[in-house]
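Write out a sequence, fold above all:
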Amino acid sequence: MDRLGIGGIQKKQSKYETDQKKLFHFLMYVLGIGGFGICLYAINNKAGFLTLYGVAMMISGASFGSGALLGFLFGIPISVQPEVLKNQQPSASSGENSLLTENKLEKMSSNNEYRGNTNLEDISNWLTKMLLGVGLTQSSTIVGTIKDYAGFAAPAFGGDDNSKFFATSILIYFLISGFMYGFIWTRLNLSRMFSNADNADEKTIAQQKTQISKLAGRYFNELFTKDIINKIMETGDAFSPLEPLSHEWITIAAAKNQIIAMYRQYKSGIVFAMGFDSILHTPSTEGYIITAIFDDILNGNNGKKRVLTSTGHGEVMTMYDKFSNNHLNALAGIIADSGYTIVDIIGSINTSKLSKGNILIVGNALGNFEDNEIKAVQDFVSEGGSLLVVAQPWAWKQYAFPDPDAGDNCFTKFAKDNPLKVERQDKDNILTHPMNKLVEPYEMIFLENAITKSELLEAEQIAS
């Protein structure tokens, strides 16, 4: 495959611009010749120079404008719209891995949520076909109409034997010139203008992704130290991997090709997903790094610096800590120095409650979310909010479906203290995990397995 360097691209672009200038210079010469012809005819005409010249310029201008409009309609580019694949339904006999794979392929094949409006193309197509049809079937009528025009315009050009010929000449000359100008300008410029307009938001988002990826990668590279990981693992905690179902997701950190932190732009907002919560509040974590994540990745600097935390669905991260104090209190202490405040969302989530902040944390919920809650969170992100989701499904079954014969342990104690709504959950289907229901609109899955300590110590920062 031939690859152009920067110099080659610049030369190619320069040649394009040069050819474009030559073409329009030629068209200007054509118009100049027409104007010069009008002047020659008007100099010695009995109608008077200024009168004849003014009438001729008005007719030529109208002809040129009409021709340019026709050229524009004929030259409108046709956009190529991507085909959205039909939803694939996994067979009933498919296993969990098959379901995840098919779901992933389906999501990745349908990233585009909008398509360009093609009404102008449809109008252009319809008019050009109509004009061509009329021109071919009504040619004799058109010739008669031009003769009538010549007789009507002749008195304004002196009324002599050459007046009809001159009136017809400037009509056809400038009509064709206008058509050439309109067609060529449209073909050379309109497609690029449409493309630039369609891609403007994508370019801005791409720039934001690059900037955030670099920041996030640097922060997580500093967080994944052996001392911090060892301390976390000593508590019995574990990390869960994430599965992106869309190319929109950017990997921030991974261990042995298992993603443990990633983010994506979702419409006007940000979604940040992690398969662990300990790093956000462990005493060994550098507070400035956590604050930087809230400032730069979750866009706290551009918002109210009010962090909302869901607490009505058995969220382990924000409700209960079997080892020390409440996780939420530890996190609040880390970010408070930078002006952040944390506000609990008690009970169900709704638009009114979400309007009080610009960052929402949902930390390892084990109870069901209602459909209207999921929609409220989706609207919150779509309108510019940031969502931090954390889940560790490796412990999901122990918390949500504790063994009654296991005795008194942290899982049974949590179940007693926090009655959960689990009627729609199937412990054999990870897709029914409440956190996976919540993040379904953003095209990702929290996986059930746990990442081992040895894999975690080899975590790599792979953000680009």
About this structure: The longest strand covers residues 258-266. Strands lie at 242-244, 250-255, 258-266, 269-274, 306-310, 341-345, 359-363, 386-390, 444-446, 460-461. Confidence is low (pLDDT under 50) at residues 1-12, 82-102, 104-115, 320-325.
